[in-house]
Amino acid sequence: MQLFVRLMLFTLTLAAWLPARADLRIEVTKGVDNAVRVAVVPFAWNGAGALPEDVTAVINSDLTLSGRFETLPVGQMLSLPHEVSEIFTRDWRLLDVEYLVIGRIAESPAGYRLDFELFNVFKNSVEAAAAIEGTADELRDMGHYVSDVVFGKLTGIEGAFSTRIMYVTANGPVTDRSYQLNIADADGHRVETILDSKEPILSATWSSDGRYIAYVSFERDARPAIYLRDTVGGTLQQLTDYPGLNGAPSFSPDGKQLAMVLSKDGNPDIYVLDLTTRKLRRITRHYGIDTEPSWSPDGKAIIFTSNRGGQPQIYQMHLADLSIERLTFEGDYNAKASVLPDGSGIVMVHRREGIFHIALLDFKRGRLRVLTETNLDESPSIAPNGSMLIYATQVNDEGILAAVSIDGGVKFNLPSSEGDVREPAWSPRKRKQFTPLRR
User: Fold this and answer.
1) pLDDT for 397-413, tens place per residue?
2) Fewer beta carbons within 10 Å, N or C terminal of the chain?
3) Dihedral (C-alpha) 166, 391, 274, 326: value to the nearest 10 degrees?
4) What is the pLDDT of residue 419?
5) Which whole-number Å values give the CA distances from 420 to 24, 197, 400, in the listed order?
6) Residue 359: which residues within 8 A CB-CB, separation 6 or more?
7) Measuring CA to CA, which residue among 110, 72, 114 is closest to residue 94?
8) What superfamily does domain 3-28+163-426 belong to in CATH?
């Protein structure tokens, strides 16, 4: 399939979307075989009235939906300790619980103070403990913080519960459709619609600090253009308006440059725009189609899709000398690649037996592994901790988002309440950074 054809098919898919709401829900479809048994004990609340957010439920949901933990229902708990001194390890051993998460929430000058401990039942020891403060609006973030600490301590992988995802939905009948660019917590909650347009929205991507997003829209004369939006200040800039294609923006790791695809000089080629000077540099020159750029973690190379060899494959350009090497050889279609944060491999769309899947190419082993089992998989985006990726797919003829761990051991779906969802992008940074207090 030629890349232009793929772009046109995707545009037609957008036009055929059903009405959709932005809210998402998570459905775990596969977890690890030997999930760690954890009990998240309801946190003590030392304040007036009810908490505006159930922090314990946030933590319990995070750990359960990660697919790596089996959490104990509150109704099965033999006791509800809030302090380490209140823990009777015998009770928890009888329930085959390996770890406890306990804590207290109290009012503070900042709003709320949360203290918690991760307790190892079989070692009778505290594995992690911290205290943080936040406002009422940050209670959910505080819960995600606890989940990240627990996940990191028990898996050795930094948690990503505090991150966000960006995605596109559509609303209204086919003859009068509107498109929304949404940002939500990684668990699908707290959806914010940051752009509502009558024109399609494509290729939304984050800057490395999570403040800026770039995307393609057809706001002006139904022509594609690349826009830059400040999610904090709210300002909007149109970066390109060249004849032909203006697409596939991708921020450099330092956030100072934006790679993109333009066809203003003939064929689609990769260009790099300096966001400070606005100087534009063309880096590929080929009669074929070069598209879908992404950056290496060190910013020294750009990975892109090209049919210069006759079929869509992944190539890498070293920016120092503009030398190009081909990275993929297995299969007749490989596209939309992103490099793992540690640079050890790439994830991409890979066609096998006529079906589009998400695959991982391990550079060290030289091995390509298909990670997904769904159909028409596209637009993979990697979590900042490198352990998961999110992508768009089709389930029961419905377009949804789905996620899979890099090792393929954990899988979950994120269907919308109504209609189709597309174009996911996982944020590079956490929504809120907390500084632990002295305990």
Assistant:
1) 777 899 999 988 889 88
2) C
3) 180
4) 58
5) 11, 16, 6
6) 334, 347, 348, 349, 350, 352, 368, 369, 370, 371
7) 72
8) TolB, C-terminal domain (2.120.10.30)
Span 225-270, pLDDT tens digits: 999 999 998 899 999 989 999 999 999 999 999 999 999 998 999 9
Question: What are the boundaries of each domain within the chain?
Answer: 3-28+163-426, 33-155
Which residues 6+ apart lie within 8 Å of 326 measured at CB?
Answer: 309, 313, 314, 315
Task: Name the CATH topology of 33-155.
Answer: Rossmann fold (3.40.50)
State both tokens at 413.
Answer: 């779906």
Distance CA 233, CA 216 (A): 20
CA 375 to mean position of chain CA atoms: 20
- Listing from the earlier edge strand, what are the strands of the sheet with 355-362? 334-339, 345-352, 355-362, 367-370
